[in-house]
Design goal:
The chain is built from 4 helices and no strands. It is mainly α. The chain has 2 domains: 35 residues, no CATH class; 36 residues.
């Protein structure tokens, strides 16, 4: 009698492919855990360092938006000539 070799499916590959689809991602329990964690973090007051980081992030975002608007305006002016 010969013994058949049973191969296990690649579990990590299956897990990754399932997480990639929006339908299955919404059903997974992970988003609920993430929501709970973020709510608990929001309840704490920000430290001065965190406030500075937020301020720098906001300023960088505003600078990026201004740069994009300026670039589009220059491109429009160039196209209109």
């Amino acid at each position: 009698m010969t013994r058949e070799r049973v191969t296990k499916p690649d579990v990590t590959l299956q897990r990754d492919s399932r997480a990639a689809t929006p339908e299955t991602a919404s059903r997974s329990s992970q988003p609920a855990q993430v929501g709970v964690l973020s709510r608990s973090l929001e309840a704490r007051p920000l430290t001065p360092t965190q406030k500075d980081a937020q301020r720098r992030e906001a300023l960088e975002g505003e600078r990026q938006l201004r740069l994009e608007r300026q670039t589009r305006a220059v491109q429009r002016a160039h196209v209109e000539r």
